[in-house]
Amino acid sequence: MKIRYTIPFKRKIFIDDHWPVPFQNGTLRIIDDEGHTKAVEITFENQPSNYSPDFSKNSDGVIAATLTHRDMRLHPTKVQLDNAISFLECMFDIDLVTDEILAEYEAETEKEVEEIVVSKIASEPNEPLLPLSFDFLTRALMAAQNSEGPSFESTLIRSARKATAKKAYIDSFRYSFLLIEATFGGGNFKTAGLKNSLKSSENFREIVTSVLMENFPIGEDQNSPTAVFIKSRPSIDEVIDHLVDFRGFYFHGNMKRKNAWRPDDQSQAESLAHLAASIALNLSMQATKALFSPEFERQHFDDAKRAGAIIVFQVHYNFREPDENFDRTLELRFSIPGTKPTSRSAFYIFQNFFSAFQSRHPLAELKSANCKMVETGQQIFDLKFYVD
User: Fold this and answer.
1) 236 close to 208: Cβ distance less than 8 angstroms
2) Which neighbouring-strand residues pair with 8?
3) In a 3-state reduction of DSSP, which class is residue 352?
4) CA distances (Å), 207 to each of 149, 235, 287, in order?
5) For the chain, how many helices (H) and strands (E)?
6) Could you tell me whether strands 2-14 and 130-131 are parallel, antiparallel, or unpaired per DSSP bridges?
7) Distance CA 275, CA 313 (A)
């Protein structure tokens, strides 16, 4: 029996290039629909027919409207996918709906046709488009194969994102601060101890410094406490004090105080939510460092090579060295994983070519560069410079 799982993305995603990759003892591929990536499909062949679901029967032999699942593949598949996606959730608003898997059970022999009672269980969600590079998904699958995903970080940062999208800024701040406190709070919950723990963490101070150098969004209410505070160019210690003080306000406030927060007035917390979310996002990015292992980069390339998903680009370029009165012509070749040229891969080739040119001919004047696919001769880019 062949088992096929189709796991939908909750929102539309754009993966511009992809190919089949190994998954457990089966194969994983991306499913596109009208230019958008809508789902992940995983296929296992030569599986026992008793893995397919069946209808339960009561004591009278009447079929009840209850499905009995015996699919031994489903749980480990869901576990690895959930762990893989938790890596990506730390960086992207991505949601692979593993609780709504479409499972299909296809007979491979005549005997199995009779044994398979339920051949399909289906459901489909729908959400907006998210651009995603295929290698992020393959790296996440590799990382999740040998270790647990950062589900703690991804759960909180995802909740903060969803709250922000709903303009529930108070909840967004709470989720972000929960991640900050859990990671760097050192078990302290009182104000003084918590401030001291955050201030004494060099890692946390580096994250806050990085966030203050970014242009994270200020809320529409330019007169909110955090908006005014950020405009004053605060120090790291002042930012920590600000966050912890508002943690006390939004976590422990009560309705009896005169300036108590109100859930129907979120504007005052918008800039605060953006500040905390920026810090939490930087923090959660650290939980994804396993994705960027050089080993995974090599494996991604090797898997693509085995799948025949390698594109070779050739760049012919003309240049002139200083003190020479003639042009030279050379060529460079670049091999990258892929099955078709995309705007992203074209830009990647251009970046690598330009970097290589500057390294090899640091003082030379680049006249032109023409890139084509070696296999098909398809033109990728054609650059000409008109300045002497």
Assistant:
1) yes
2) 39
3) helix
4) 22, 13, 13
5) 12, 13
6) parallel
7) 43
